[in-house]
Design brief:
Elements (H helix, E strand, L loop, with lengths): L3 E6 L3 H13 L3 E7 L3 H9 L5 E3 L2 H5 L6 E4 L6 H10 L3 E5 L6 H14 L3 E4 L6 H11 L6 E11 L16 H17 L5 E9 L5 E10 L4 E7 L1 E12 L2 E5 L11 E6 L9 E6 L4 H13 L9 H20 L5 H7 L5
Parallel strand pairs: 1-2, 1-4, 2-3, 4-5, 5-6, 7-10
Antiparallel strand pairs: 7-11, 8-9, 9-10, 11-12, 12-13, 13-14
Length: 345
């Protein structure tokens, strides 16, 4: 297969440290250019990985006919505007999560995709990691009986005022940055959409009242997901799934280490000491390599977009419902928010 020529919008840390190195090692991706609003920054980011082109503006890169696809790791409030501009320039788009600021924005992006005919997907790398594929298979096969509960945490401690995660107008806060992961993975493993959501949020007035601590209950047809995310508690991530005949848990659910074995602990629940526990090992991989290759194959007509906009829209609806529930103090229905925005559900 002929490699897809990728351009990168901006010099975000995730792009420079994770995605670009992964794409350089992939079978199907060629990182052909990187753009910044500061040419010197683009040139510096291009130098070490040997990216052939550096652009002093996003517009210049989008105008380059040699760029076939764009990876968009810009701050959250720029995801939809620049993804639309890339689509209108005829580029396929892989956009970082969360796909937008809300359901209404995501619908604008979906409309642009359908109008331009390009492929657009959300960069939720967990979708392609073999440990998550295995978890889904185990649950579907009844390894832990009927799935009834998922419990997740995701947190870090960050107080820098100039960090985009602490700027509310940029889409900062814990729910958008990391709370989207337990939402995504619980939807993926349950294989269902939550019917309603209840949430509590603690906000930080120092940073424009961003959500510094969010806890939510997602009520699925088959059970519940309960999760907490925070930008101001100790570094932690976990995701556990409980069924009628056991439980399972990935060792490192969201930021699985590149080049290291991933482990899933499966316990049949026969005692509290783990007498029925086994550990499955998943061979080392890089989920960013897998993500880039999967999207590139979809561009070449050899597969599907791993996380299409239809799925991203549903995840965004749950995020919106969590925010709304924290404000109203009532259960909120993601499907109702989609209908109110004019989405087909």
């Amino acid at each position: 297969m002929r490699k897809v020529r990728w351009g990168v919008l901006g010099v975000a840390r995730i792009a420079v440290n994770r995605v670009i190195p992964a794409m350089k090692r992939s079978e199907c991706c060629e990182v052909a250019g990187i753009a910044s609003r500061d040419l010197a920054r683009a040139q510096a980011a291009a130098r070490e990985p040997g990216i052939p082109k550096a652009y002093g503006s996003y517009e210049e890169m989008l105008a380059d006919p040699e760029i076939e696809a764009v990876y968009n790791p810009l701050p959250n409030h720029l995801h939809v505007p620049w993804s639309i501009r890339a689509a209108e320039a005829g580029k396929h788009v892989l956009c970082e999560k969360p796909i937008g600021m809300n359901v209404a924005e995501t619908l604008e992006l979906l409309t642009a995709r359908d109008r331009t005919g390009v492929l657009i997907g959300e960069a939720f790398m967990v979708q392609v990691h073999p440990q998550w594929r295995r978890i889904v298979d185990l649950v579907r096969a009844g390894r832990i009986g009927k799935l009834r509960s998922a419990i997740g945490t995701f947190s870090y401690f960050k107080l820098e005022a100039d960090n985009i995660r602490n700027v509310r107008e940029y889409g900062g806060g814990g729910l958008m940055d990391i709370g989207c992961y337990p939402i995504k993975t619980s939807r993926m493993v349950f294989g269902e959409e939550p019917a309603r959501v209840s949430a509590a949020i603690t906000r930080d007035p120092r940073f424009g009242n961003i959500d510094m601590l969010t806890s939510a209950i997602l009520e699925f047809p088959s059970g519940h997901c309960i999760f907490t995310c925070s930008t101001q508690i100790a570094l932690q991530q976990s995701m556990r799934f409980y069924g009628t005949e056991g439980r399972l848990e990935p060792e490192l659910p969201f930021n699985a280490a590149t080049g290291r074995v991933a482990r899933i602990r499966i316990d049949d629940g026969r005692d509290l000491e783990g007498g029925g526990a086994v550990v499955e090992e998943i061979p080392p991989c890089d989920q960013y390599v897998l993500q880039g290759d999967a999207f590139s194959r979809a561009i070449r007509g050899e597969g599907q977009v791993p996380v299409p906009l239809e799925d991203a829209l549903k995840n965004m609806a749950v995020i919106d419902a969590v925010f709304r529930s924290a404000e109203t103090g009532a259960w909120e229905e993601p499907a109702s928010l989609l209908q109110a925005a004019g989405a087909a559900v």
